[in-house]
Amino acid sequence: MAWFLTSLACLLLSVVAVPVSSSVFMRMLTSRGSERPGSPTNSHSCWSVRSVPNDLRSAAIMGPNGLSTYYQKYTEAYGIPILGSVHVPEDAVKRACYVVRFLFADRQDVRRSYYKHFGRFAVYGQNEVTRSIPEHAYLDPFWDTRARGLGATLTAPVATCAEENALCYSTDTYDPNEDIALHEYSHALQSLGAYFAVPGFEARLKSAYSSAISRGLWANTYAGTDEVEYWAEAVQSYFNANTHRDTVNGIHGPVSTRDKLRTYDPAIYALIQEIFPCNNNYITRCGNSQTLRSQEHAQQLRMNCAGSGGTGTGTGTGTGTNAGTGTGTGTGTGGSCVDQSASCQYWSQTGECSKNQAYMSQNCKKSCNLCSAGGQGTQSGSCSDQSQHCKYWSETGQCTQNAAYMLKNCKKSCNQCSGSVGHTGSCADQSTNCQYWSDTGECTRNYTYMSQNCKKSCRLC
C-alpha cells in the first residue's frame, strides 16, 4: 500500500519491500536544480477538467522532461497541475484537485516552493497500475501490485493516488479506509514544499519524532516508522481523516482525530498547525459523488494565513564591533500578548516553548512568558548562515515570520552581522518615513528592510 512506504522507498527500491531510511530520502532533496518559471496563483479551476496545455509538455516549463502524452486530462490548483490519463474519470481528477487546493491554501511560501520545483499531482485509473505513470515507469513490476499511490521527489516530482480510493469505490479492496491521496500528497507537501520553504522545519520534525519515540508514543503503528510517515499519518489525524482502531494493530491505533492528536503528541500537532494555520475544514472523500463535488466547489478556503505575528515596540542599548560580535539588552512590550490556542499552557509545560520556538513565540506568547521580553536580544560569535537556503528564506520574509530560528541560524541573510542589536557603527535612518513606518509596526513586519534602512527608528543602535 502506497502510504505504507516512504516516498524514497517507493522511488528507489525495485526489489526489497522495506522502507529506505528517511534520512537518505531527505538528503536526496537538498540539491536544488533548475526551477519552473513564473509563480503560483491564489486561484484554482478544479471544476474544469480539460486537455493538457501545450507549454507543460516542455521540459523548461515542467521539468525534468515535460509532461508525457500519457496525460490527457488536466486541471489545476494555484497553477499546480493535477493530471490523469484518458482512462481516469473527471470526478477523480476533481477530487484530487480539491485535496491539492486544500493542502496548499494556508502558506504561500510552501505553495511557491512546490510550484518552483516542478511539483504536480496525478491520478491513475482503477485498471491502471503504478508504472502507468510515466515518471514511475522505470520501477520494478513489483510496484504494480505493491502500491496504489506514491509521493514526490526532485527527480520524479509527481505524487499519485488511484481512482478507486480517491472516489471511495466499494471495489477498493486495497485499503478502503485510508485516504491515500491525503497521505501521499502530504508527503509531497513536505518533500518539495515545507522542506525548502520553512526554516528549520525538517530539524524540528526530526526532533518531534525523536522525542515522541523516546517517550514510547506511536508504538506498533506506522507513524512510528520514521519522521516521514510520522508527518503524513499525523496530518491525516489532524484533519480527522485517519483510520481508527481502538487498539494498535501494527499500522493504526486510537489517535485518529485532531483532538486526540493535540493531547497525545502536542509537538507534532504544533508543527502541523504551523504549516496549516488557516484552520480550514477538510471534506472527506466518501459519500454521494455529486454532493461531494458540489461541496468541494462551494467551499471558500481561507488562504495565506502565515503572518508575522503581533507587532510591538521596544527599547534597548548595547555595545559591539563591526565584526559582528557584541551584546545587547532591551525591554519592550509586544502587541497583543495572548495565547492563540487553548493548548498553549499544556505545550509550555511539556517544553514546547524551547523545542518549537518559531511556532510558540508567535502563538503562545503568554504561556511562554514572552509578554514583557519584546526587546531582549543578543548577538555573538560567528556571523554566517548555517543553511544554504537562508538567503531564499530571507527573501520570502522568514527573518520576521520565523525569527526564533532565522536570527540564530541565518544571521548573515537576516543582516545580523553588523548594524543590528549591539552595533555601534553608523546609526541613522535612510528615509524620512522611517519613524512613521516604525510607529505602524514595520520594524517587525519588514525586519530585513527596516534593520538596514531605519536603524534609529527601530532602536537597533
TrEMBL record:
- UniProt-listed Pfam families: ShK
Question: Which gene carries the instructions for this protein?
Answer: LOC106152912
Which Gene3D superfamilies does this UniProt record tie to the protein?
Answer: 1.10.10.1940, Collagenase (Catalytic Domain)
Q: Which organism is it from?
A: Lingula anatina
A molecular function (GO) term? metallopeptidase activity
Q: List the disulfide bonds.
A: C337-C371, C383-C417, C427-C461
The organism's taxonomy opens as:
Eukaryota, Metazoa, Spiralia, Lophotrochozoa, Brachiopoda
Keywords, in A-Z order: Disulfide bond, Signal
Q: Which InterPro entries match?
A: MetalloPept_cat_dom_sf, ShKT_dom
* Domain ShKT, first and last residues per copy: 337-371, 383-417, 427-461
Signal sequence extent: 1-17
What's the name of the protein? Uncharacterized protein LOC106152912 isoform X2
